[in-house]
Every structure is written in C-alpha cells, then in structure tokens.
C-alpha cells in the first residue's frame, strides 16, 4: 500500500517537472518570436539584403524599388502643382480679373464643328431667317428678350376680344425646331449689351424676372456669322409724356394692358351716381 502510494507520487512529481519545463520552453520560444518580430518590424533595407544572403531567399530578389513620384498619376496621392503649370497661372492672373472681366458662355467653334450663326431678335426678319436656315450646315443661337414672334397687325383684334392672345404669338422653338432639339443650338432669353467684331463675340445680359431678388448676370457668345435683327424703337415725334403714358401696341403685354384698361373703364361707367 505504501509502495503504491509512493510510486503514484513519484509519477506525479515527474509529470509536473515535465509540464513546467515544457511551459518554460514555450515561454522562452514565444519571447524569442516576439523579439524577432519586433526586430523585423524596425529593420532596414541592408538587413533585408543580409537576410537574403544568409537564408538564400530567392523571392526577395523579385521585389522592385517603388517609385513614389509615379503615384500621382494613379490617383494614390495628391497631384503636384508643378504637373499643371496652368494652375499657377490662374493664381497669378486672379488679381487682374477685376480689370479684365471674363464672361462665361459659348466659346469659339472648333474646325471640326459646324459654324455658329448668332441671331439677335425674334421679330419678322429674324424669324423668317431662322425658318429658312439649314441647320445641317450651321448651328444656330438666338438671343432675344422674348421667346416668341408676334403678329403685330392682329394685336388690335386682341384688344377688343376678337382674337385670343395665344393666336397672335408663335414660340420661336416652333419656327426653328433646332433651338429645342439640337444639342448645339440654343435660345437665350437675354438682351445684347455689347459687341466685339474683332473677337467675334456678343455680350449679353439676362432680363429682369419681374422684381424677384435674382440679379441679372452677363455672359458672352462667340459667333462665326452674326445677324442683327433687333428691330427699332417706336417714334414719339418729340411729344412729351407719350413714352411714359402711351401703349405702342407692339407687344402682347401692350394689348393686354389696353384690354384691361378698356374693361375697367366699362365697369366703372356703370357705377350709380357717376356721370
């Protein structure tokens, strides 16, 4: 009985010593691995070359040197300013923009594009020209404060109700369908405020939008051919007060104001007690 107990205790002590030595060996190996990992983390390029010579690692020879200057072309880092001299030129010219204003708009056409014809106005002459223009040969840009043509001889009939206002106005996009369908043809609801025949540019300003807070802005349109059909101002023959108080019956809004004034006077004349 005592001999059996002694044998069991001897076996237990022997196993404990083996487990302790194994744990210590694993701890020592773990510390060595951590130390080696930390050493490799902060190693330099010569140490890699030394390891390649010592261990004969052939895969290290396939590692090529990285050219960090080529990263910008692949979008990995910020694009250097020296690659685009125009960026520096824009910064240098920013101070002179106040003296030489640059308007946004349509630039000059390229040799591969169709020539651009700019038409000022949407009156009888301008709309007749737009209707007969061959849009397969030219791109067209129309600039006018109104987007329709008015049949002025019929305006008198709209004042008394014989005709409706929509019967005497035709949208310019119906007269020339390219203004609504062609991607290179445009209609700008604006007024022409300047012209440069040397640069072939027309300077325009947007019209007011009925008293809203939006301020008009200016833009330019380059042209290859220019048609000026803006019409003429009505004559007042030097009579004072005509321009301020008279309706010249040249636009649809003139006929609307006359009709509204006529109906108002008729309603006021039926009030009792008025002579």
TrEMBL record:
It is a peripheral membrane protein. InterPro entries: FAD/NAD-bd_sf (IPR036188), FAD/NAD-binding_dom (IPR023753), NDH-2 (IPR045024). It catalyses: a ubiquinone + NADH + H(+) = a ubiquinol + NAD(+). It is found in: Mitochondrion inner membrane; Peroxisome. One of its GO terms (molecular function) is NADH dehydrogenase activity. Residues 116-263 form the FAD/NAD(P)-binding domain. Belongs to the NADH dehydrogenase family. PANTHER family: NADH DEHYDROGENASE (PTHR43706), NADH:UBIQUINONE REDUCTASE (NON-ELECTROGENIC) (PTHR43706:SF4). Gene3D superfamilies: 3.50.50.100. GO terms for cellular component: mitochondrial inner membrane; peroxisome. Residues 10-31 are annotated as: Disordered. This is FAD/NAD(P)-binding domain-containing protein. Keywords: FAD, Flavoprotein, Membrane, Mitochondrion, Mitochondrion inner membrane, NAD, Oxidoreductase, Peroxisome. The keyword Flavoprotein applies.
């Amino acid at each position: 009985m005592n001999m059996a107990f002694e044998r069991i205790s001897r076996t237990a002590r022997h196993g404990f010593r083996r487990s302790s030595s194994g744990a210590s060996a694993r701890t020592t190996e773990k510390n060595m691995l951590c130390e080696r990992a930390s050493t490799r983390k902060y190693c330099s390029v010569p140490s890699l070359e030394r390891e390649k010579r010592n261990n004969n690692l052939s895969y290290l020879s396939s590692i090529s040197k990285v050219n960090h200057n080529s990263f910008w072309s692949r979008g990995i880092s910020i694009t250097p300013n020296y690659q685009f001299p125009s960026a520096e030129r824009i910064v240098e010219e920013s101070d002179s923009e106040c003296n030489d204003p640059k308007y946004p708009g349509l630039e000059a056409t390229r040799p591969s594009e169709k020539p651009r014809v700019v038409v000022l106005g949407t009156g009888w002459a301008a709309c007749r020209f737009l209707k007969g223009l061959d849009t397969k040969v030219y791109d067209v840009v129309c600039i006018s404060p109104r987007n329709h043509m008015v049949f002025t001889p019929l305006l008198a009939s709209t004042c008394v109700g014989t005709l409706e206002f929509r019967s005497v106005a035709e949208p310019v996009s119906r007269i020339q369908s390219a203004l609504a369908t062609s991607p290179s043809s445009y209609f700008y609801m604006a007024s022409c405020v300047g012209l440069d025949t040397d640069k072939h540019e027309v300077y325009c300003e947007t019209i007011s939008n009925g008293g809203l807070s939006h301020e008009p802005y200016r833009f330019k349109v380059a042209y290859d051919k220019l048609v000026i059909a803006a019409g003429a101002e009505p004559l007042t023959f030097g009579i004072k007060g005509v321009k301020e108080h008279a309706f010249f019956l040249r636009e649809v809004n003139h006929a609307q104001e006359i009709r509204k004034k006529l109906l108002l006077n008729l309603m006021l004349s039926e009030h009792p007690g008025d002579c």
